[in-house]
Amino acid sequence: MVAIVTMCFIFAMISFVTNMAAPFGNIWGNQYPWSKMAGNLMNFLAYLCMGIPAGKMLLKIGYKNTTLVALATGFVGIVIQWISSKVGGGSAIYVYLLGAFVCGFCVCMLNTVVNPMLNILGGGGNKGNQYIQIGGTLNSLTGTLTPLLVGALIGTVTASTSMSDVAPLLFIAMGVFAVAFVIISLVKIPEPAKERNATVYEHSAWNFRHFVLGAIAIFFYVGIEIGIPSQVNFYLADATGKGAFPAGFAGAAAIGGAIAAIYWLLMMVGRLCSTFISGKVSTRAQMITVSSVAILLVLIAILIPKSVTINMPGYSAADGFRMFQVPLSCLFLVLCGLCTSLMWGAIFNLAVEGLGKYTEAASGIFMMLVVGGGIMPFIQDFIAKGAGYMNSYWLVIAMLCYLLYYALIGCKNVNKDIPVD
User: Fold this and answer.
1) Distances (CA, A) of 54 to 102, 354, 413
2) Cβ proximity of 240 and 158 under 8 Å
3) CB count, 10 Å around CB of 171?
């Protein structure tokens, strides 16, 4: 139980660090238009570099030591981002991007630890998925709070808005990493890789078709998870008149952050619900359902005219929390949080099912493909700049179609002849 609680806490930290990138992008994007998704890209690019090494770290130094290295790395990354607020001139953006890249190493290592560990503690199968969803619930809670806090600290993005405005959040992050390091150092965590005492295997995770297709699925999934709320945030925060509000609308960034937070809140609700049903409903059935519903929701959002509006809860410095009139499309997009909430745990659970002794190495490869969370939203943002915010969601629909294919066909293990004990 102590190990489960510890892993769930780590799951929460992952989201806290990751979800600072998009709202921070509103700050840098005002001065450097090309940099709006650059921090997010650097954060996820680190997965590409660190994924496989992180899997090897699990085998060599174990789950606990890998976690401690990750927490120390995350502390350094946050400090570098804070330093960017003190650096003058054009070099500040590059200091920030370096900090985002270092934080990417941290969350990659933490993800490499927490997913297989929760799956193992649950014994794999539906129970393993249930434990991952429990951790995911806390992950979504911090994901809800982060853009909300950043939006509240910024208010309206102006030419004078800088990283110093969100310094309190960075100090909180430093404190969380420091406290977590002390806690993890005192907690006993199971070390299944060390217990097997094996380093050379005849096959590898790459020999399992369902794992390879699952790794591709996670590449697209993280792009979907990050891309949907990020573009909603940018759409609402755009004060140039191209977004949801008229040019110069006061408090647009805060409203965008608050409504994007609803997406993460719904992810938390979805994962909480999944913790109760995952022990009874198969992971594959859940994945088929949420993929289909998400495709429908995004399609409706694209087709609804901007002029059709609805009142949704938001935040402004002048009025605090109240209802704001926003395009109806935003509602359908944030509702996707209920669908994406189940996908991470479901894909990981389906992809590593039956891998046995190859699970640790597979987790590292899996994390490498999380780079999709940087690449695909970056591509989506490029499309948004040229074709408009809503048209960029056609890319999301294409990725969701692949996830539906994986749930229907690709997740089946056709390599059961490979020994995994």
Assistant:
1) 14, 21, 25
2) no
3) 12
The answer to whether residues 26 and 35 touch, using CB atoms and an 8 Å cutoff, is no
| Alpha carbons 348 and 7: distance in angstroms, whole number | 16
Domain containing 352 equals: 2-187+199-410
Strand, coil or helix: 312: strand
User: In whole angstroms, how far apart are CA 83 and each of 160, 216, 260?
Assistant: 17, 36, 27
Question: Is residue 16 assigned to a domain?
Answer: yes
Kindly state whether residue 417 falls inside one of the protein's structural domains.
no
> Which two structure tokens, joined as six digits, stand for 102?
């270092």
Does residue 418 belong to any structural domain of this protein? no
Strand partners, 312: 324
Indicate if the alpha-carbon torsion angle 80, 101, 8, 378 is positive or negative.
positive
Distance, in Å, from the CA atom of 256 to the CA atom of 244, rounded to the nearest integer, reads: 10
pLDDT digits (tens, 9 = 90+) for 79-138: 998 898 787 777 888 888 898 899 889 888 888 887 777 777 766 566 666 777 777 777
Coil, strand or helix at 326: strand
Q: Taking the mean position of all CA atoms in its chain, how far away is CA 69?
A: 21
Strand partners, 103: none
Q: At what angle do helices 209-237 and 252-277 cross, to 10 degrees?
A: 150
Give the residue carrying structure tokens 């390091």.
181
The CATH code of the domain that includes 94 is 1.20.1250.20
Sequence-distant (6+) residues with CB within 8 A of 130 are 122, 274, 275, 278, 279
224 domain residue, yes or no: yes
Identify which of 355, 340, 356, 333 has the alpha carbon closest to the alpha carbon of residue 413.
Answer: 355
Contact, 66 vs 109, CB < 8 A? yes
What does the DSSP assignment read for 125-140?
A: HHHHHHHHHHHHHHHH
Total number of domains in the chain = 1
What's the half-sphere exposure (Cβ side, CA atoms, 13 Å) at 192? 16
How far apart, in whole angstroms, are the C-alpha atoms of residue 364 and residue 366? Answer: 5
- The enclosing H or E element of 408 equals none
Q: pLDDT, tens digit, for every residue of 190-206?
A: 776 665 555 556 777 78
CB count in 10 Å sphere of residue 285 = 12
How many helices (H) and strands (E) are present in the chain, helices listed first?
A: 14, 2
| Tokens 């998925």 found at | 129
Give the pLDDT band of residue 404 (cuts 50, 70, 90): very high
